[in-house]
Amino acid sequence: MGKKNYRNIVQAQAANLDKAVGSLKSTLGDVAWLRNLSEAASTIREKCKGDDWSVQIDDMELPIENPKHLKPSKLKGNLKMFVSISMEGSGKGWKNEEDCIKNLCFKVEVIEKNQKDPQKKFQTGFHIDRVDDKDDSSEMHPLYHVHFLNESLIEGTEVLAMDVPRLMHHPVDVLLGILLVYANYNLTGYKKLLNDGLFMGLCRDSAKHILTPYYQSLSKVPWTEGVTSDYDKSLCPYLTA
């Protein structure tokens, strides 16, 4: 039996991004950040010739809407948000509904629009990562985790900055990541996305291939008896170390 070819799976990733762009133009209008998705689709189609695909999107600006509990309050209406996505996926893993993410860094950054003093930079955000196999840091690293950023360069008696824990979080691809950002930072836009049947259908397809394997593996550790793989254990290392 010859080697299986997963190129059709890879090219389907580009097609899904194109479908999302077409649908979102009707739902949200011809917003500038959709061009980033079109460029990502073109890159997959032109450069990903094997069984894997990759996406690289840098500083895609998405709208942020009235964040709650904002401090200092003077920043209201003076924030902008950027999303960067670097990921590599496996066509074989997608096809077999196994963990199909080979590399992942999904980063959200919120900063002050009109920053005037470089010594007083207001900044927050988070990233969802897949641990690099070569990582040997002492911090607890679930294989997939969310890490909240605390990088404001502000000194004062009411500011405390330190590293925060890396908490378990399911992986995301481009579409699931965009949905996550809108759900948390732009409720008006999120409600529009929920009514976009094509976009939500694409997100559910991503969830089937990305979230399902994650939660199925997580459910094995350590609450059920039986053998678990190193992958299963890596999802929640502080319970399986």
Fold blueprint:
Elements: H1 7-28, H2 34-47, E1 52-62, E2 79-90, H3 91-95, E3 101-112, E4 123-130, E5 144-149, E6 167-168, H4 174-185, H5 187-194, H6 197-218, H7 230-234, H8 237-240
Antiparallel strand pairs: 1-2, 2-3, 3-4, 4-5, 5-6
Task: Note the main attributes of this structure.
241 residues, alpha+beta, six-stranded antiparallel β-sheet, 8 helices, 38% helix
Explain what this protein looks like in three dimensions.
The chain is α+β, with helices and mostly antiparallel strands. It has one domain (52-221). Helix content is 38%, strand content 21%. The protein has eight helices and six strands, in the order H-H-E-E-H-E-E-E-E-H-H-H-H-H. The protein has helices at residues 7-28, 34-47, 91-95, 174-185, 187-194, 197-218, 230-234, 237-240; strands at 52-62, 79-90, 101-112, 123-130, 144-149, 167-168. Strands 1-2-3-4-5-6 form a six-stranded antiparallel sheet. Helix 1 runs antiparallel to helix 2 (34-47) and helix 4 packs across helix 5. The chain is globular and about 60 Å long. 27% of the residues are buried.
